[in-house]
From TrEMBL:
PANTHER family tied to this protein: PERIPLASMIC SUBSTRATE BINDING PROTEIN FAMILY 3 (PTHR38834), SOLUTE-BINDING PROTEIN FAMILY 3_N-TERMINAL DOMAIN-CONTAINING PROTEIN (PTHR38834:SF3)
Residue ranges crossing the lipid bilayer per the database entry: none
Domain Solute-binding protein family 3/N-terminal: 32-244
Protein name as annotated: Solute-binding protein family 3/N-terminal domain-containing protein
Domain of life: Bacteria
InterPro entries xrefs: Solute-binding_3/MltF_N
Taxonomic lineage from the root: Bacteria, Pseudomonadati, Pseudomonadota, Gammaproteobacteria, Oceanospirillales
Pfam families documented for this protein: SBP_bac_3
UniProt source species: Zooshikella ganghwensis
Amino acid sequence: MLFNQVRLQLGLSLFFCIKAIANDYDYIFAADTWPPYYGPKLNNGGFLAEIIQEAYQLQGKKVFVVFTSWKRALELSKKGKYQALFGAYPVPEREPYFQYTSAICNSRMYLFSKRSKAYEMSTLKDLGKLRVGVVRGYFYSKPFNQAHFVNKQEALSDMVNIKLLIHDRIDLIVMDDRVLKYYINTAYPSFSDQYIQHALVISDDTVHLAISKAIPNTQQLYQEFEQGFTKMKAQGRLEAIMQAHGFDLPNDSR
């Protein structure tokens, strides 16, 4: 009972906090933590967050980002509790709920394992009974998500999967290569020469802002982003932001 009361109080506190924030911002968007694309501890919220916020700023609008779990960000954005969702792949199953903006950048996912493990694979069938770490609720690719013969082990985050890989609790992880390199460089530098990236590409997708169709002004938010984004491209701002965060052009997947 006490736990439920505390949880209720925390929920109410968060609700009123967000309501107060809404008075100072035009829009509230949701995101999980997906560095180096976006995250609460990154400079300017990460390069994707900076691009999105600046696109709206050029249209005279201020955006506040609520960082939460992916599942919560997705579900509450579907319902219009948040007006848009960061970092969405253009998944057809989500089209009834979201309008996707133009592609902001690319994301490419690979399989990673310990260097000491001599796994060879050219197709998903080659994974056999190997334990493959994935994040609960993530869409990777249609072939991978529908490959029920793959022994997928769900975790709450990419960070958890890296820990599980280091401690041999899983054999492989599926992850965006930028994200893995960020976590290795910042949290596990001693592991930097102990993993390998396999050639098999699990997904190669564009990354978008997904605007909720449950809000009355979906088209307004869409047009504001597109117009601001077009201005940024013309001004060379995309390249400048990416380079400031240590990356090349927006569509260059490392």
